[in-house]
Write a structure and sequence with these properties.
Distance between the termini of chain A: 14 Å
Radius of gyration of chain A: 20 Å
Oligomer: homodimer
Largest interface: A-B, 44 and 44 residues
Helix content of chain A: 25-40%
Number of helices of chain A: 10
Structural class of chain A: alpha/beta
Number of strands of chain A: 12
Strand order of the largest sheet of chain A: 3-2-1-4-7
Strand content of chain A: 15-25%
Chain lengths: ~300, ~300
């Protein structure tokens, strides 16, 4: 019977690693640098080495280890095939096979957004639920979908790419993905800044936000001060995000949306702006869906990766 | 080892029943009337009775029957709980338990749209795929989602309610569901008629469609004759449906869309109008998704119900 497992979250700058008990208690966490040079050829060998070193350091019997769960920043097929991960320099290869061969341990892998969603379901904002959609509002918008407690991977490992839902027919600028009118362009941290600048430019009204660096945090701080233009920006953020969550609900019918990423640090106030638009556009059967803030921050990925292997 | 099973599709007017081999060959199909009066209290007893009569008629040993799969026109939870099905008069009860108790057979149930999707995956337009979204363009728009060969039920049995995706910000009239701007309002058979009347009214141009009963069929027949206004109507149909399918793809990342229902009888020509809008709005990872027409017609439900129990 396995007593331990590893939850690993491979990011573009660092690899986060956690040693967990089989019950999901985080015993220790550490980081190593992600060596993206040379097509990221060193990343998995580095991971294997630090895992083996930790096993030795802790004097753990290999038979007591359930395995390694891995989250990676790009599409992963169910068999562990990576389909190219731009910011790690990776091409197409089987990450599960490579890490399993070099450690002798069972390995399971998924997309980092799915891992984070699984982590939040298990130990974070989605605790107590089995059907959750994690919406990560950062530089972009990521999504992870868990149904019946299982990660929804999709055909190309590209489910939950909700930042690229077409949501705004009026948009004229292109998203990073090349399309026009994506959710990410209006409701991500960078989207809020972009919309914020437009709102300030198109108005003569006074605002706390004038003559300072606009950020999602500055906008929501100003909202708390009843700043009229900040409220206008937050309404636009909420209108598109609320509408997108209503649309997603008609497809997968979750129990709860968990909102994470930098923007979620503004707190429950974001729901004040998403709720009314969600309710306006939601199908009747979905109107009782709950909303919660993510709780695990940067640890969501390692928790979810651990849960992937614990099952 | 089971040799036979029943696939049953409960509709608002008739209950369709099929006796299948365990390999999925349809041996016999028949129908009974759906007695919706008195809160639909007779429907399941009638089903039980006709199933028992068929078993006797065919002289089948009960041990040779795998069980009964059931599709019903409304949300069904995974445990078989019906959450109220307006057009059968049903309130809340467990349909699996009731039919199982009265037949002594294993029963599994799902929403009729999910059953149809499972049927099309197994023996119809989605054959060879495991991740499909069935879009049924009829009076309304229904949807059924199959992932990894399994029905996606959702929390309230309300996944795949894609007819009620909010897709049209310009809409002024209300959908049957009470919301404004649903996909069903523009791309269903009735939606095409509604849009068609508007297009004809707002134009002075000649059209084959003038002075005749407009229907989805008439519109696509006129499209085949290069009728300018019919093409304009088909463009609107395709724009919204194509965009909706691009949005759904970012959420569940299917391999194939299978299009069924009355509108699909127009044939492959409908893809001429949906394809360009799908490609315009689809996330890069989803652009290779296939499109196919449904093949099983009204039998999709009984096939899918049978597959539900065969597994």
């Amino acid at each position: 019977m396995g007593k331990f497992c590893f939850g690993i979250d491979v990011g573009g700058t660092t690899v986060k690693l956690g040693l967990f008990t089989a019950q999901g208690d985080l015993l220790e966490k550490w980081e190593i640098k992600t060596r993206v040079e040379n097509g990221g050829i060193n990343i998995i060998p580095d991971v294997a080495e630090t895992v083996k070193a930790k096993i030795e350091e802790k004097n753990i019997d290999k038979n007591e280890i359930i395995g390694i769960g891995l989250g990676v920043p790009g599409p992963v097929k169910e068999d562990g095939t990576i389909l190219g991960t731009a910011n790690l320099g990776w091409g197409v290869f089987n990450v599960v096979k490579e890490l399993s061969d070099s450690t002798g341990l069972t390995v399971k892998a998924t997309n980092d957004a799915n891992a984070a969603a699984l982590g939040e379901m298990w130990k974070g904002g989605g605790q107590g639920y089995k059907n959750i959609v994690l919406v990560t509002l950062g530089t972009g918008i990521g999504g992870g979908i868990i149904l019946n407690g299982q990660v929804l991977s999709g055909t190309n490992g590209a489910s939950g790419e909700i930042g690229h839902i077409h949501i705004n027919d009026e948009e004229t600028e292109a998203c990073g993905c090349g399309n026009i009118g994506c959710l990410e362009q209006v409701s991500s941290a960078t989207g809020i800044v972009r919309i914020g600048k437009k709102v300030l430019k198109n108005s003569e009204k006074p605002s706390i936000l004038r003559n300072k660096e606009i950020s999602a945090k500055a906008v929501f701080d100003a909202v708390k001060e009843d700043d009229e233009l900040a409220i206008q920006i937050a309404e636009i953020f909420g209108e598109y995000l609320g509408k997108a969550m209503a649309i997603i609900a008609t497809v997968v019918d979750p129990q709860v949306y968990v909102i994470g990423g930098g923007v979620s640090k503004a707190g429950d106030i974001i729901f004040k702006f998403t709720d009314k638009y969600f309710q306006k556009h939601a199908f009747s059967a979905n109107r009782n869906i709950k909303f919660a803030l993510a709780k695990l921050g940067n640890d969501a990925g390692i928790y979810g990766a651990a849960k992937l292997i614990i099952g």
